[in-house]
Design a protein that fits this description.
Blueprint: H1 5-18, H2 26-30, H3 36-47, H4 53-71, H5 79-88, E1 94-97, H6 101-110, E2 120-123, H7 135-144, E3 152-155, H8 158-167, E4 170-173, H9 182-187, E5 190-191, H10 196-208
Parallel strand pairs: 1-2, 3-4, 4-5
Helix pairs in contact: 1-4
Length: about 210
């Protein structure tokens, strides 16, 4: 929904630099789609158990906040048009994000998106394991009272698509900065370049099911 992945990567690199650790884009990219605890495990696996993740987390968060304050928070291309379409067609919507509830709500406010558009907002902080574990999507389907094979998940990362696939959901892959594995691409039901193309997929499916 939000254009934050490149911002996260640059913030992580700069936070590590302040802590006198040198990393490349590869490390924070591995964490895209995961929650805080999984991100901590990934960083400490690569930088050592002595890496002060809590300090890193606070510094990187502050860097991101300052950048958003200065530049604003951008939404992904086609998001607003897609939300309008889905609302008009009475789709049952949910957010299933690895971010904390506070971050999710803050981002919705910053982009003037009414959280009441979504029947449920599910946060990764409520789960022991994050994506690529499928639990968040399985639980979201339960809350929506739909079977996983009746749900469509929109994702942009290896971790997200893998989790949705394991949950048994149909998936639409909208690539961002994560370098996608061949296996991930094969898991996706559809692949598009922007959220605008999701409307075409839904419209075509409606026509084919008539």
């Amino acid at each position: 929904m939000f254009d934050t992945e490149s911002l996260w990567v640059s913030s992580a690199i700069n936070a590590c630099k302040q802590m006198e650790y040198k990393i490349t884009e590869k490390l924070p990219t591995l964490c895209i789609g995961t929650n805080k605890e999984t991100t901590k495990n990934i960083f400490q696996k690569h930088l050592g158990n002595t890496f002060d993740f809590e300090t890193f987390y606070l510094i990187s968060r502050d860097i991101m906040k300052e950048e958003i304050k200065k530049e604003g928070l951008k939404t992904k291309k086609g998001l607003l048009e897609l939300l309008s379409y889905l609302k008009d067609k009475n789709y049952l919507l949910a957010i299933a994000s690895s971010s904390t509830k506070k971050v999710i709500n803050d981002y919705l406010k910053l982009t003037n998106i009414d959280k009441n558009n979504f029947y449920k907002i599910v946060s990764g902080e409520d789960f022991k394991e994050s994506k690529p574990n499928p639990d968040i999507f399985i639980k979201t389907c339960e809350l929506l009272n739909v079977k996983p094979n009746e749900a469509i998940v929109l994702e942009d990362s290896n971790n997200g698509i893998t989790a949705a696939y394991k949950a048994g959901c149909k998936t639409i892959l909208i690539p961002d900065i994560d370098i996608l594995k061949d296996q991930t691409i094969k898991m996706a039901t559809y692949q598009v370049q922007s959220l605008l193309e999701v409307i075409d997929i839904l419209e075509n499916n409606i026509e084919s099911n008539k």
